[in-house]
Amino acid sequence: TARTRQVTGEFGHVYEQQYAVALFNSVRFEIEGGGGPQSQLLHRKNPLEDRSIFSGGLFQYLEENKRWRNRFVFVADTYNISFYENKVAHERSLRPKGTINCAGYKALTSMEEYLELINTSLPGIKAKVGSGQFVKCATQFPLILWHPYARHHYFCVLTEKEQKKWHAVLQDCVRHSNNGLSEECRVQTPAFTDAMRLHRQAQGHYGTWDMMCGGPPQILANLVMETLHPELRNLIGPRLKGKIQQRQRNWMLISEAVYKQVLSQTQAQYEALVQACEVQTSRLDTVLRTDMDQIITSKEHVSGKIRALVLPRAGQLLRGSVQPFLSSILEALMEPTSRGFSEVRDVFFRELVEVSKNTLNGGGKDKLAEHMEKISMLAFHPVKMQSCYEKVEQLNLEGLQQRFDVSSPSVFIQRAQILMREQMDNAVYTFEHLLHQSLEGKVQGGEDLCKTIHCCQDRVLKKYDYDSSTVRKKFFKEALLQIIIPYMLKQLSPSFHLDLPRFQELIFEDFSQFILVENVFEEVVLQSVTKDIMMAVKEAAVQKKHNLYRDSMILTNSDPNLHLLGENPSVDWATQFRGGNEEPEGALGGGGQSSRRRRQVVSMIQLDEMGPLPYESCLEVPGNCGCRRYTLHYRGLSARALRICSEMHNYGSWAVTHPLVLHVLLFSSRGHCRQAVDANSLACHPTEMDIVVYNISL
Fold it and tell me: Collapsing DSSP states into helix, strand and coil, what is residue 154?
C-alpha cells in the first residue's frame, strides 16, 4: 500500500502537468486544423456493435482446486474471456465461473515455453520438464496464459489442430486487450502516455516498455510492480520452503495476491486523479482560447533558445550514432510488415473469389447475403487473420535492441497487427457499401452478380493499396521515432540537465502550466531527427521495394462521393437480402441480452476431418426416411466412446451395419423420456426429437 501510494503520487504530479499540456495541444489542433492524407477506404466506427467475438466450444480448464473441468467459452466484444459450466448457463445469462482480462498476458502452447518463464520468477530455482510435473495436463495439447504478476490460466484440448486455432483466439484477445488506450481521447491518452514516459525516464528507464498493456489502472499497477515485485521476491523467496515446484507455486500465489491489491488501489487512485483534472478543464480551456496567440509566441521564443543550445550536440550525436543505422532499422521493420499487409490483401481477395464462385454456382442474392454476413467480420476472425499476423511476428531487431535500448520487438509487432486488422475491416466495410449500392433495387442473375462483385473488388483493392502504403509509412516513422528518440534523450539529458531549469524563467507565470521546459526539450530533439527519418522513408518509397507509394502520388479514379456512404449504418445482409427470417448461423445470446440475439464472429472451432468435436454438448445429425434433424447430446462417455460416436457420424447415417451397439434415450420436444433403443433403429422414427447418448459397448 505504501509503495502504491508513493508511485501513484509521483505519477499523479506529472500527469497533472501533462494534462494541461495535452489540453493545450488539443485546443491548438482544433483551432489550426490539420491532419494527414485522407483515407480512400471507409472506416467503421463501431465494428463490433451487437457482436460477440467467439461463442461455443468446450475446453478443459484447470481450476484453483487443481481439478480439470470442461468449460463453455464466450468472448465478448471487450475481448474478455468468460467461461461457464455449460452452454445452458451462458444462454441463461448466469454468472460466469471466471473472466480473464488478457492484458499483459502471453499465450503459450508448450510446457517448455512455460517453464522457461517460470524459472525466471525465483532466482536460483530452476525446474526441468522431467524433474516433476509443475502442472499435470489433462492432454498433451496445453494452452497457457502467462503473466509476470497475475494468475496463470491453464487449458487443454484434444488435438494439435484445435490447439492452433484456440491459440489464435487467445492471441487475439491478448493483442486487443494490450491496446487499451483509446486514440479518440485527445487529452487523457496523450497526457497519460507522456506522464508515464517522463516518470520512467526520471527513474532511468528509457525506450519501449512491454508492460504498457491494458487500461490506465493496469498500466499503473504494472508500474508499481516493476519495482515492488523484485523487492518482495528477494525478501520472501529465501524463506519459502518445500520442493522446487511447491516454492514456485507459493511465490505465484503471493505475487497474484499482491497484484490484485495493487490493481484495486491504482483503480481508485487513477479515477480520483482524472476527476481532479477534469474539474480544472473548463477553466484551463477558457484561458487557452483567450490567450492562445500569446502562449504560442511564448513557447516559440523558449523553443528558439533551447534549440540554439541543443541542436549542435544533437546533430553530432545524430551523425555519429544514428544515421549509420537508420537504413538497417527501417529494413528490419519494412520487410515483415509489408509481407503482413500483403497477406491481408491476399486473404481479402481469396474470400471474395470464394463468394464469386458460390454465387455463380447458384443461390443468387440469398446465398450472397449468407456469405457477406460472414465476410463482414473477416478482420476480427482470429483464425482467418492468423496467417497475416504470423508474417509480422517474424520482425526481428536483433543486434539493434541492445544499442537502442529496445526491450523487445513485441510493441511494434502488436501495433502493426492492430493496423492490419483496421485496414482489413476498412476494406471489407468499403466493399460492403459499394456492393450494396450496386445491388440496391436491381435484379441480377449469377453472372451479373459476379461481374458486380469483381467491379467492386477491383475498386476496393486499388484503394487498399493506397491506404496500406500510407498507413505503413506512418507506422515506420512512428517506430523509428520510438526507437531513436529515447536513445538520443538518454545520451543528451545528462548534458543539459542543469541548463534547462533556467529557461523556465522565460515563460510567463500565467502560461507556465501549458509550457514545460522538459516537453520543449523533447520537441527540439524530435525535430532534430525527424528530417532524417522522413528522408529515409521517402527513399524507401522511391525504390518501390515494398510497394510503397511516393508522397507526391495521388490515387486516380477515386470515388468523390464514397465517404457519403460511410455515414450510412452497416449493411444488414440477412434482413435486406434474406428476408430477415433466419438467425445467422451460430448466433448465441450473451451479455444479459435475452430478447436480442448477438451475432458471433467466430463459429465453433471444429476440425473438418474429424466431424464433431468429441466433447461438444449438442450436435445436429440428419435422420433417414425424410424425417427432420435430430439433436444429439453426449453425456458421460469415455474418450474412446466419444471417438466412436464421431466415427459413426461420419458415415452419414445412424442406421448402418456396424459391430457396435449404441444405446440412446429418446426425448420428446416437451422433455419427456420416450424410450431407450438401439441407435440402428433410429431411422424408424420420423418425428423430431432429442437423442441423449448414455452408453456404448463393443
Answer: strand
Kindly state the average pLDDT of the residues 139-165: 92
Q: What is the pLDDT of residue 42?
A: 84
* Residue with the three cell numbers 451479373: 448
Residue 63 is classified by DSSP as: -
CA of residue 581 relative to chain centroid, distance: 33
Lowest mean pLDDT among 6-10, 96-100, 371-375: 371-375
Residues 411/423, Cβ–Cβ less than 8 Å: no
Nearest-10 Cα torsion for 170, 171, 173, 176: 180
- Please count the CA atoms within 13 angstroms of the CA of 167 that sit on its side-chain side: 19
Contacts of 190 (CB under 8 A, 6+ apart): 18, 22, 25
- CA dist., res. 311 & res. 496, Å (int): 12
Confidence of residue 597 (pLDDT cuts 50, 70, 90): very low
Smallest Cα–Cα separation from 51: which of 605, 618, 616, 593? 593
Using CA atoms, how far apart are residues 127 and 118, in angstroms rounded to an integer? 8
- Rounded Cα distance between 116 and 586, Å, is 39
Cα distance between the two ends of the chain: 63
Q: Could you report the per-residue pLDDT of 198-254, keeping only the tens digit for each?
A: 999 999 999 889 999 999 999 999 999 999 999 999 999 888 888 888 888 899 999
pTM of the model: 0.81
CA distance 190 to 199: 14
As given in the structure block, the three cell numbers for residue 257 are 495476491
The C-alpha R_g of the chain, in whole angstroms, comes to: 29
Supply the mean pLDDT for the chain: 80
| Nearest partner of 206 among 419, 6, 406, 415, judged by Cα | 406
Checking if the pLDDT of 691 tops 60, the result is no
Residue 168 makes CB contacts below 8 A (sequence gap 6+) with 382, 383, 385, 386
Q: How many CA atoms lie within 13 A of 415 on its CB side?
A: 21
